[in-house]
Design brief:
6-stranded mixed sheet; Rossmann fold; binds adenosine-5'-triphosphate; about 40% helix
Length: about 270
């Protein structure tokens, strides 16, 4: 017993995110005793049908919503007890990100850097680097109010990277982006993972999950119903050799689903 407690504690320290028994109900359960583990350095995609509980889960992780039950550990930090420390380790990019319209991208990044207490000259250098990274150099002195959805999404992503988070969580980051913007965001995220960060994103674009993710978690009715690589998911669905779309549709078809233990398939 002692040994398994020690093993669990050691794993919680090295894992980027560990959710146990996470629950949240509105008029009915949205997240229903969710257990999920994302390893440090992983690119993890969360899939699930509309209303499955993905955004609610991630909003609880980001500290925007209090769970009814369960625990959230971010690199071993208890995010419910010490939300500030957990937030320092992570970034949250919402699907409809809020940026300040009257600010230019450079001003916005300086503002965010100020919130994190970054020294102004270092912040300015970093803001220019991030603006270059997201390809908004020509617009860096224009107010965000005239920006397209894709441009705003990129500014929000840059803002989320200012404090160099080890865990980057994004809700539908590629929806509504044109091909070039989507490629750029994907490249930024892949580069962050290569540099040692952990990325968790939700997406309805199955090809994104298939091509980019180290592991895919499938959520239905607020519970993890399958997890692993595409091959492992196909095996769990009894559909070896099928496309992710076929496997996914099978996994989330409305039938009783036993919740999987995280890491079971990996
Ligand atoms: N603030 C809220 N108040 C009431 N119900 C909510 C609220 N947020 C989410 N819900 C409900 O919780 C359930 C899960 O919603 P959630 O947004 O987490 O799903 P999702 O998997 O992210 O869906 P989608 O893919 O459509 O974005 C849904 O039934 C939704 O209507």
């Amino acid at each position: 017993m002692r040994l398994s407690q020690d093993t669990a504690a050691a794993s919680a320290l090295t894992d980027a995110l560990v959710l146990t028994g996470l629950a949240k109900a509105f008029d009915r359960p949205a997240v229903d005793g969710l257990n999920l583990t994302v390893r440090s350095g992983e690119f993890y995609a969360l899939l699930g049908p509309n209303g499955a509980g993905k955004t609610t889960t991630l909003r609880m992780v980001a500290g925007l919503m209090r769970p009814d039950a369960g625990t959230i550990s971010v690199f071993g930090i208890d995010a419910l007890r010490d939300p500030i420390a957990a937030k320092q380790a992570m970034a949250w990019v919402a699907d409809e990100p809020m940026i300040y319209d009257k600010l230019t991208p450079l001003e916005y990044l300086a503002f965010v850097a100020g919130l994190w207490g970054i020294e102004p000259r270092a912040a300015e250098r970093q803001a220019h680097d991030l603006i270059d990274l997201i390809g908004l150099g020509p617009h860096c002195n224009e107010r965000c109010e005239g920006f397209s959805k894709g441009m705003r999404q990129k500014v929000a992503l840059a803002g989320a990277l200012v404090h160099e988070p080890r865990l980057i969580i994004l809700d539908e980051p590629l929806t509504g982006l044109d091909a070039a913007s989507a490629r750029l965001v994907k490249d930024v995220l892949i580069a962050r993972v290569r540099a040692g960060a952990t990325v968790i994103l939700t997406t309805h674009i199955l090809e994104v999950a298939e091509r980019m993710a180290d592991r895919i978690g499938v959520i239905a009715h607020g519970r993890l119903v399958a997890e692993g690589t595409l091959g492992q998911l196909a095996q769990q669905a009894g559909r070896q050799g099928s496309s992710l779309e076929e496997v996914f549709l099978d996994l989330v078809a409305d039938k009783p689903q036993p919740a999987v233990r995280p890491g079971m398939a990996a």
